[in-house]
Sequence to fold (157 residues):
Amino acid sequence: MSSDRYVSRKEVNASYRPKSSLMSPGLQRARKPYRLPNAITGLTLLGFGVGVWAYSISAVKQDDFSDVDKQALELQKQLADDVEAARETGATAAMAAAELVPFPTEPTPKLQRTLAREGLLASAVDRRFPRLLDPDRKTFVWGAPPVDNIGRLWDRP
Fold:
């Protein structure tokens, strides 16, 4: 008697998902009001994409390529003239560069960077709350290594 009031399990399963590739009738009803707005949005995005593509193609379009050969020949002739002029003077690029830049006889010492506050926030905080910053490096994180040389994990100050 109690089984007459309920729908059988087979009917429930058939109505929920009739086939594995199809949506249930409830999901189809829920999606129905959004079909037209989604289609309009999709067509709008498609139109925008096609418009951007068409504009970019028309912006770079070049129908006349006759000047490309002339320009390439002029550049090749100019390069040949430059090489010939360098041969006549006997100067090469390496010799000219060696004459311009003297080779240093001894290496210059590396400049040590002084510890200074960097940034606007650190200087403003140091003026207002002098004990907030690390007293050694004037940084927000106490004991933090410098950013330029963070060291290794096992290095301890």
In short: Residues 35-59 form the longest helix (25 residues). The chain has a mean pLDDT of 78. Residues 44 and 50 are 10 Å apart (CA to CA). Residues 67-99 form one domain.
